[in-house]
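We were asked to recover a plausible sequence for a given structure. The inputs and outputs are reproduced exactly as logged, with field labels preserved.

PROBLEM: sequence recovery
POSITIONS: 269
GIVEN STRUCTURE:
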């Protein structure tokens, strides 16, 4: 099984990372994509530890919309910062990037510019992107259209949207990565959407340390807990968890495309 999006270089894992890796391996998690904030030195400082303990980890990096405000008036720096971070992490994707209108931690016009600059960089580098979009579907698609010019590939991370939103993302050729939220009692609408998704566009993620699935809800999330989410989705779709896990592996490889790596990509930090 592949955890397509988590933050295991977060300080939340500083004290017991070896145990986290051991539990993940025991649970059958073979690969994870670790998201790094391009301008968070504390996360990059932990990459050697992550890499030593778990060589199968691959990396994605970008400026998160929460942190976009730092680039107000100096948008040109975004590409420089992300490009350097992507080289340093030997990134297989750029992410997470996008628009966050729920918390609105950065002015929306700045979020737009930071997002657009990173999409353009992804197109230039030929890397897929991982999008964080919350309460911002229309603007996300408008910016994708303009900055991506139909050439950007990617995944909607933490997808909890409607059927119509799923269709829009699928029409762009995007993957949808389903989080542990799908196990929450009130997520009936999301479960209905997940039943209908094409099997070759589905990814699953923990977003650890956030969003732990039932029965770990409220606790620190970790990649091992992906099994709960995969089991829930497998049941919804009437397949075995083993078949689901194999499908996720194939889909993740397809998501990586040309950057597919049979031997782990090594960060150079
Ligand atoms: Zn996110
Ligand atoms: Zn995330």
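RECOVERED SEQUENCE:
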């Amino acid at each position: 099984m592949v955890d397509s999006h988590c933050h295991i270089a977060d300080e939340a894992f500083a004290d017991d990372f070896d145990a986290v890796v051991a539990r993940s391996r025991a649970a059958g998690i073979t690969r994870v994509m670790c998201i790094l904030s391009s301008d968070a030195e504390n996360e990059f400082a932990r990459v050697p530890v992550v890499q030593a303990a778990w060589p199968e980890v691959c990396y994605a990096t970008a400026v998160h919309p929460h942190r976009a405000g730092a680039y107000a008036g100096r948008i040109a720096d975004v590409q420089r910062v992300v490009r350097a971070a992507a080289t340093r992490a030997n990134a297989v994707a750029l992410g997470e990037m996008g628009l966050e209108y729920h918390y609105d931690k950065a002015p929306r016009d700045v979020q737009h510019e930071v997002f657009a600059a990173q999409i353009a960089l992804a197109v230039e580098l030929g890397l897929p992107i991982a999008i964080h979009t919350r309460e911002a579907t229309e603007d996300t698609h408008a910016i994708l259209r303009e900055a991506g010019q139909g050439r950007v590939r990617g995944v909607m991370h933490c997808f909890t949207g409607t059927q119509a939103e799923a269709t829009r993302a699928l029409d762009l050729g995007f993957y949808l990565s389903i989080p542990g939220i799908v196990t929450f009692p009130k997520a009936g609408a999301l479960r209905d959407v997940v039943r209908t998704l094409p099997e070759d566009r589905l990814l699953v993620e923990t977003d650890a340390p956030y969003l732990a699935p039932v029965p770990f809800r409220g606790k620190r999330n970790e990649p091992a807990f992906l099994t709960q989410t995969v089991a829930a989705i497998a049941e919804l779709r009437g397949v075995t968890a083993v078949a689901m896990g194999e499908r996720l592996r194939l889909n993740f490889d397809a998501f990586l495309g040309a950057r597919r790596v049979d031997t782990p990509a090594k960060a150079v930090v």
